[in-house]
Design goal:
The chain has six helices and five strands. It is of the alpha/beta class. The chain is globular.
Length: 209
């Protein structure tokens, strides 16, 4: 039995549960280039009614059969797909590893499904949907095309659109040496998303007062 959420999120985002996703890949084409690393960070309301990170999941992924590996992309993210200590898993297992706890979170928040939160999320949802199609997973918890974009929110709240620069403007610690790790980028994106949502709540309360 799932532990009930402290304050269910079903009314906050029209029945959607925000889940921050970051995917590191071997290129820009989701049908040809491999997904190499995926992370998901679940955010929920705490006892004070503020959005906060509650769970983190990540895994390295084995390139799918006949996938293409772009050397420029690998140089950019620093991932060696063939490194013996990556402890990578097949795409299907990687998705199920993340989808299972997300489904539980959706349920305990009385939501209908998850919505992907990302920094320029068209990229991430494109790779996620391509992997779902390849692996024939029937029960994805995510909305197939709706997303929340922290690049847009960052431009609104902090006049910046690059994740590192938004984080700096927001006072969020940023380590360039850790960037382009799926979990690190997802955590920082989640921190930013929570900060902007909570800031909006505070501003709305001031206006109401």
């Amino acid at each position: 039995m799932d532990t009930p959420a402290i304050i269910p999120l079903d009314k906050r985002f029209r029945g959607y549960l925000p889940v921050v996703v970051d995917i590191e890949t071997a290129g820009f084409n989701p049908k040809k280039n491999a997904m190499l690393e995926i992370a998901a960070v679940i955010v929920e309301l705490n006892s004070e009614g503020n959005l906060a990170i509650t769970e983190r999941y990540s895994t390295h992924v084995i390139p799918f059969k006949n996938s293409e590996l772009d050397e420029a992309a690998l140089k950019f993210n620093g991932i060696d797909p063939h490194h013996p200590f990556r402890m990578a898993v097949e795409e299907h297992d990687a998705l199920e590893l993340l989808f299972k706890p997300i489904r539980h979170a959706v349920k305990r928040n009385h939501c209908t499904r998850a919505i992907l939160v990302g920094h320029n999320p068209a990229f991430d949802i494109g790779f996620l949907n391509a992997a779902i199609t390849r692996t024939h997973i029937k029960r994805s918890p995510f909305h197939p095309f709706s997303t929340f974009d922290t690049a847009t929110l960052g431009g609104l709240a902090y006049q910046q659109t690059v994740l590192a620069k938004i984080a700096q403007a927001a006072g969020i610690e940023w380590d360039n040496d850790k960037a382009h790790s799926a979990l690190y980028d997802a955590e920082k994106t989640a921190e930013l998303f929570c900060m902007i949502v909570n800031r909006w709540k505070q501003l709305a309360a001031l206006d109401a007062g």
